[in-house]
Design brief:
Two copies of one chain form a homodimer. In chain A, helix 3 (88-103) crosses helix 7 (213-225). Helices cover 32% and strands 26% of the residues of chain A. The first copy, chain A, has a five-stranded mixed beta barrel. With 354 residues, chain A is an alpha/beta fold. Strand 15 (309-313) of chain A pairs parallel with strand 17 (326-331) of chain B, so a sheet runs across the interface.
């Protein structure tokens, strides 16, 4: 059976402003010193398992040109442009319908476009196990990340008995408070929900039919029109009818036969500027320095220069990012407030900076 | 007797980098929100006492165009361009010789070009008293600032008995340590040495003749050539022969009949970036904000935007300065280290940034 991949690349990602912009979100940025963008890494990471013509990128129409530019090896017809964002459930239903039209049944690896993985061989082996589990039956498989600390920013997967090379999922739980997160961590029965899924077209299609019939019906029409001159029109019409829903809430939390494979491959969701020092080398004073920077007596800073010199003196635990039209100087304790800056720019109609 | 002013504007002022550059030092910058430059303020401040054609600006040849541009009312022949910097003694001897050539004897107010004064009426009255004291006899008068805290960065003037509207200077003392500075402050017998002087041409000339004969001789030649075609040539030759010396060390500390007038007119030498919050209005969180800036949860910051937006989040006691080619982010505890950045730029021959 064909092994295909669906890479979800519709995110707007405000958390890396000012480097990320609405017109150029995180998945199209390079946040590591090797210059590769997040989505380029995502694609090259799965190349041991999936060939380029079987990789499908679902993104917003406004980002289609970036995908084509950054991923020249992916056939342009595989770049599936959403007319509007409707969260992950419609996105996956759309891709499923297209893959069904092309190949009938197939294995689908459904992956975010903006995460990092440190140990790619372990990642590949984990996906292999997931593929096996997904082909054994109409199972839905989610990759769970073995937690390394009590993170309160992720959802968790509570798993039960082992079955083959996977574990039965008991339930999905929302972002916990710290106390609960610590309980989860020590129990050894919880994994981070990474949003990576593996299943057959037939398996996920069946779930959509029963759990999200409108989305199923719309996606069917889109799939049937794929490759015809009706496609654009149908896509536009059907997509706008979809209501926003995540696949986690719409399908996973309501389905039977959900399995998880625990992965320990150095996963990082690169959630905000704090991630940069985690995913890159830092100097003796734990500073991460990029570009034309002079530091004097600085510690634990993250400094990304643009076209100009940045000189930093005597500062600690601060993030500095320079771009052509905006400079960010942010305490590491306040990275979540970058969104507030964007909100204020929006209030003042300074869209050129968003 | 004519009242003239000599404004010393030869300083390079590295401490306001990146806003100040070798080609555009502090005295030619506006560091207050009214947009007036330091030297423009210095000139308008003395206009109640001295008319424009009697104001002489001594500066380095490379800054002559800035003086002419910023002070159009000053006759261009009054802009005295030093071929090279030789500290204040040769600078004053040069100006003295020129004023002597023009007016014979006269009163000279000798003033730095890059200080701020808050209470200009008190300042004017203080200078008036100094003028009276200087004309009574061949006295040298220095304006002392009544100290308001135990500053260790200034030299002090120890004064003795009152005489007329001035006090006899006992001695000049170097920058003290904190303990000594506290003693000075509580004694009530010490003033800050502001580097502002008042005397007659005849009085300072006499001191140069006896205490710095080479400088006197060279300045004489320069003065005699002033207004002739020999001037440029003579100036070049004689000035290069001068050795660098401050008027404090070369004259004041060695002379008799030195008087001081205590001044309490809100003097600020605007020594480094820390001064900006002192000399400008700050907001409710004690931030000083200039230009296109968005702050979230910041306290006691000084932020000067250039052509770009600066957004600052969750930071305290930090100075941020943006220019076209360099950004400075500096802890308020490390403003003296701005010089280190310039030193490192010099090491790397990055003169375009200095």
């Amino acid at each position: 059976m064909k092994i295909t991949a669906v890479i979800m690349a519709g995110g707007k990602g405000e958390r890396f402003w000012p480097k990320s912009r609405e017109s150029h979100p995180k998945q199209f940025l390079s946040l590591t010193d090797d210059g590769e963008t997040m989505i380029q890494k995502t694609v090259s990471r799965i190349s041991p398992l999936v060939q380029a013509e079987d990789i499908f990128i679902v993104t917003n129409a406004c980002y289609k040109h970036l995908v084509i530019e950054q991923l020249p090896d992916i056939p342009q017809e595989n770049v599936l442009a959403e007319p509007c964002g409707r969260n992950t459930a419609p996105c996956i239903a759309f891709a499923t319908a297209v893959i069904k039209k092309k190949y009938g049944n197939a294995v689908m690896l459904v992956l975010p476009s903006d995460h990092l993985i440190k140990y790619e061989n372990i990642y590949t082996r984990t996906l292999c196990n997931a593929i096996v589990t997904a082909t054994e039956d109409n199972n839905l498989v989610t990759i769970g990340i073995t937690p390394t600390y009590p993170e309160t920013g992720y959802g968790y997967i509570n798993f039960g008995e082992e079955s083959g090379n996977a574990y039965k999922v008991e339930r999905f739980v929302e972002k916990p408070d710290l106390r609960t997160a610590k309980k989860y961590l020590s129990s050894g029965k919880y994994l981070w929900n990474s949003g990576m899924f593996v299943w057959q077209v037939s398996a996920i299609e069946e779930r959509f039919r029963t759990l999200m019939p409108e989305v199923f019906a719309g996606a069917e029409k889109i799939g049937q029109s794929f490759g015809t001159e009706r496609f654009e029109k149908t896509l536009e019409t059907e997509y706008n009818k979809f209501s926003s829903e995540s696949v986690d809430f719409g399908i996973m939390e309501k389905s039977e036969n959900i399995y998880t494979i625990p992965g320990s491959f150095g996963w990082d969701d690169v959630g905000n500027w704090l991630a940069i020092e985690r995913i890159n080398e830092t100097d003796d004073n734990q500073n991460y320095i990029e570009g034309d920077v002079i530091t004097e007596n600085c510690r634990r800073t993250t400094i990304c220069a643009g076209k100009r010199l940045i000189s930093a003196i005597g500062i600690e635990d601060i993030i500095i990012v320079d771009t052509d039209d905006a400079v960010l100087v942010c305490s590491k304790n306040n990275t979540q407030d970058v969104k507030k800056i964007i909100a204020r720019l929006r209030e003042n109609n300074r869209t050129e900076l968003i």
